[in-house]
Specification:
147 residues; mainly beta; BH3618-like; 9-stranded antiparallel sheet; 11 strands
Length: 147
Amino acid sequence: MKISTKFHGEIEMNEEEIYTFESGIPGFLEEKQFGLLPLDETPFFVLQSIKKSEVAFIMTNPFDVFPMYEVNLSDEVLADLKIQLEKDVTVFTILSVRDPFEQTTANLQAPIILNHTKKLGKQYIIKTDNYTTRHKLIPSPVKQEAK
């Protein structure tokens, strides 16, 4: 099937590559089907709505950027996404890309969870004060104190 995308123009996508978000994504509840597309030669991906080209989220693997990040999925999410094995799950964080890029933030409080075996997805809201919706992707350089 051909789909129009925000960042890749019109592309061909196999139906087996489409992830279903049965509950949609908060703020986009009507959008239920998405494709996962690499973003050029970067560590970023695009979660692209199949129906609306303008609905696309830039994401990255949070564990590559925040090595201490932890996601403990609830039994409800495991059941909703039909997760049986840890290797079937991929976790992404949605980025708010800013200009300059150093101001880009990651939403660690609500990661995107994908079961790539069953092609199911969900945005999971972590109920903790440890994470926010705006963690800086690139930490500010530490100012050296005058000696």
